[in-house]
Amino acid sequence: MPDVQPDDYLGPTQLTGARGPVARAPRSKEARDPKLAAQLWQKSVELTGADYSRLSG
């Protein structure tokens, strides 16, 4: 897909997104929520000990 843009989500298009050919697919409201994303990132840091915050300008 030459027209893929940043923040696009590509995934299976059949069986409720579980299989099938890959195409641009919608994301749930939760998947687009920046507050939930920040909470998930923080929990990932806590559980893995991998903190990449120094890499972001």
Automatic annotation (TrEMBL):
Annotated spans, Disordered: 1-35
Protein known as: Putative kog1208, dehydrogenases with different specificities oxidoreductase domain protein
Gene source species: Mycobacteroides abscessus MAB_030201_1075
Phylogenetic placement of the source organism: Bacteria, Bacillati, Actinomycetota, Actinomycetes, Mycobacteriales
